[in-house]
Amino acid sequence: MFGLPSEDQVLDATKELIGLSNGHNGELANQGILNTYSMQKVKVALGIAIPKSE
Q1: Tens of pLDDT along the chain (54 residues)?
Q2: Would you tell me how many other CB atoms lie within 10 Å of the CB of residue 40?
Q3: Distance between CA 25 and CA 32 in Å, rounded?
Q4: Rounded to the nearest 5°, which phi and psi values hold at 47?
């Protein structure tokens, strides 16, 4: 309705955002990469365009 994401998409984005907020503050060597993947999943779930630079 009105181009809003579905409830499942919002739940998927919420799960990724909670994971980011509970992050390890760089304790893992690749934490920055994992955070980037999580943000991309949030953008896809909510229908937000991902710039080519990402």
Answers
A1: 678 899 999 999 999 999 888 876 656 778 888 888 999 999 999 999 888 886
A2: 14
A3: 9
A4: 75, 30
